[in-house]
Known about the structure:
Elements: H1 13-30, H2 39-48, H3 50-58, H4 60-69, H5 78-89, H6 95-118, H7 124-154, E1 156-159, E2 168-172, H8 173-176, E3 186-192, E4 196-199, H9 207-223, E5 234-235, E6 248-250, H10 251-260, H11 264-270, E7 274-275, H12 281-294, H13 303-320, H14 334-348, H15 360-369, H16 375-397, H17 410-419, H18 425-447, H19 458-463, H20 473-483, H21 488-504, H22 508-527, H23 532-543, H24 550-558, H25 560-572, H26 574-582, H27 593-596, H28 605-613, H29 621-644, H30 650-680, H31 689-692, E8 693-698, H32 699-702, E9 712-718, H33 733-749, E10 760-761, E11 774-776, H34 777-786, H35 790-797, E12 800-803, H36 806-820, H37 826-844, E13 851-853, H38 861-875, H39 888-897, H40 903-925, E14 931-933, H41 938-966
Parallel strand pairs: 3-5, 3-6, 9-10, 9-11
Antiparallel strand pairs: 1-4, 2-3, 2-7, 8-9, 8-12, 13-14
Helix pairs in contact: 1-2, 2-3, 3-4, 3-6, 5-6, 5-7, 6-7, 7-9, 10-12, 13-14, 14-15, 14-18, 15-16, 16-18, 20-21, 21-23, 22-24, 23-25, 23-26, 24-25, 25-26, 29-30, 30-33, 34-36, 35-38, 37-38, 37-41, 38-39, 39-40, 40-41
Amino acid sequence: MAISPLEYSDLTPEIQEYAQNQWLKFEDKAAPLDVSTIKSELTYAFALSDFIYESFYAVPQQAVEWLQTGSFEQAVTTLRIHDEIATALESVDSEASLMAALRRMRRKIQSHIIWRDMMGLASLDEVLEATSALADEAILQARDWLQHSLEQRWGVPTGRSGSRQTMFVIGMGKLGGCELNVSSDVDLIFTYSEAGATKGARKERDNQEFFIRLGQRLINVLNQTTVDGSLFVVDMRLRPFGDSGPLVMPFSAFEDYYQHHGREWERYAMVKGRVLGPKSESQQELAQLLQPFVYRRYIDFSAFQSLRKMKLLIQQEVKRRQLDTNIKLGAGGIREVEFVAQSQQLIRGGREPELRVRNLLQTLATIEQFEILPDTNVTQLAESYRYLRKLEHMLQGIADEQTQTLPADAFTQSRIAAAMGHAQWQDLLAELAQVRGYVHQCFDEVIGEQPGEQQPPQSTLKAMPLWPAVWEDSLVESACEELVTEHSRDFYIALQNFYDKSHKRQLGPRGRDALEHLMPKLLGCVCELAQPAQHLAAILGVIEPILTRATYLELLVESEQALAQLVLLCSSSGWIASELARHPMLLDELLDPAQLVDTTELDAYQDELRQFMLRVSEDDLEQQMEGLRHFKQIQQLRIAAADVTGTLPVMKVSDHLTRLAEVLLGFCIHAAWSQLKERFGTPEGVNQVDECLSVIGYGKLGGLELGYGSDLDIVFFHLVPRGYTNGAKSIDTGQFFAKLVQRVSHIMTTRTHSGELYEIDLRLRPSGASGVLVTHLDGFANYQREEAWVWEHQALVRARAVFGQHNLLSAFADIRQQILCLPRVAEDLAQEVVKMRHKMRDHLGSNDADVFDLKQDAGGIADIEFLAQFLVLNFSNKQRVLSDWPDNVRIFETANSLNILSDEQSQQLTHAYISYRNRGHRLALQCEKAKVPNSEFLNEREQVKTIWRSFFNDAEQRLLELERTVE
Length: 967
């Protein structure tokens, strides 16, 4: 459809008045030039374009010359643009003068192009060709000047073939298609043909270094805004690896990137890719390198899927940013015409070379020629495209601004309507609605969803702007602010860091495709959390280690349950997130959420481990160690999953973690025994290790209170008389058992690829670190009776045998009870307990008045444990039943039944203890220390302190007096 602007007389009074005012200012500036003969033409131009006014106001004689000589009647040709810029650069002697000359030339040529366009003198083809030629010549002549300048200092970049190297500039998008907007940025990619080094300078430099510096200087010349205005905003994000990739790379690296890392949207973008400048052999070589990536040899209908995804992204962006009035991105806009044309290029371009053109109108003509789409559709689509591009240029020509959004103010609306040949804005809107309606209908027919095709869930659709094909800081940050209400900046930074890392990794096409499908789904799930910013970094920390493992990425894409479970568990527990990050194979456990939280029965761990280890050879210790660690990780993940989902209460969680540790410890002992037996034989009369060896668990292991990161406090004893083993290489039994414990320690604590099994602490054995690793039970009993300190008897309260046959367990239980039931002087015992507690508190308690350490501070867990130990050591001589239990809760219950504790005291201690453990447990799940604000648990702490004073007040006073005496 032919479009001509309204006659001046048909313009609104407001526009005419505005134009007259602009004319008066111009007339004053132009004096003493005679401008009266060109008043009507200039006034009309000023009515439609402020850019034309500003350009001619800056150089009035230019307007006079052009109008008086009829220059505007002639199109701006590519040759003319080349010659004018070349002439302007002849006198350039510095980078600053280069920038000034180019900006003056752009304003001069751009004003000529926009004049002809706004006045209805130029066809769309002319405007697109001239605007693109202006960009081409400015970029290429700036490059040539800068390369020559740099060669004077650094030498001539020379390839391995010995030929001079030039930096090729690939124009992308509309520049690549020679259809640039009148006010547009430029998408560029830099490359060069051969690796090599500079020649002719004092210092030889790698070609890569030379061209990176050249690229940086070229971007600065093009991009920087100076007193002379702007030239072109340069966007380099379409280069391989985006912002994280090198600024320039040789052809070989180009080929490698697009073969192994190129993504679907890059195929779409590279359809428009054009090396600026005259054709050369190197250009042909580059085109041949890229062709297999862009165009498949077969008819490639998979392109539809990628284009639909891009369509969804754009639709979400339009909705989120309220871009309905954007004639490029909105429904029925320019982008949809481009999608229709380029979809056919991607699908059939491999088989039909004629489709391998960059210009959209030429592409539509070829589609019509090959009857790929109905003729009427293509003709109308081309006309619609011309209309939309004309309107786009009118929007941009007012102020030389890159915009595709319809104006909101009435004055600008009137100017645009007039430029498009309408007296009323509403008439223009009606005409535009028809055009956009047709384009969108055609787009839906070609690219739209097929019958039965599933739309992504709303959460995924909303999150799509968070993971764009091309990262743009402002747009992604804006999307974060809209989707994440609190700490959106933290969310954005975590996402940006992950984006940068993921684009530096070599994922391969399969992995890259899986990641592109996964991220909107994952981010959609995260954004539905109560505090998404708090959890995103931890969740992405799980994804990062599997970036190069396409199978795991695909697992999360294909299994919505697994993905949902991942987000749930990682947001509930930092410990789970860190475990999954360290051990990605655990992701397999997410496939069946029901099974994941269905923890193993306590009495079934032994059999589960036995079956799990059947897959590992008994002769391969390294694989056995890996298997044990993997089993522990799986079981702990299941326990943690049941924990955070509320399936298991804290006390039961500890039961499971404790039983798991016992079973793994037992396996390690049997494995170590088998190895030593093969080499040394066994002690006389012994066949199995559990007949002669027992392990005492202290602390949390003994008290059935293990946590996720707990170490194991253990002591070994045996029941074998002195003698020798019966193997070919016989050693005495003391050596044998020492080697056995060393081997067990090695199996458990060696840090393999999967980490260590458990950290173990053997220092509670008789005589501590200076004692032998394993003692005879009689020696253990004698030590406890005759040499042990009070604190060692306190530790014995929370001790129980965790390995060995029944007779061994019973033997230890008898000795433990004997020791705990020894008669003691209450005052002396209280004094020792208080002294040890003060020592611990001084060394381990919190020094921060605003913090309460759940374990070490006054009124905390340690006070409760010391109270329980005192009750057992002080009263068991008369009430032996008090020594039966190794756990605090049952000690308090028994003390209450014996009237040692009142009902209130027992309840208060039990409540405080369980409350502290619950809180500490939750903190451990978040990988945080067992410390809380000082304002928490005030009542519980005071109650514990009160009970403490009721038993230890005199001992506290005596300790105070003793400390004063020492001072």
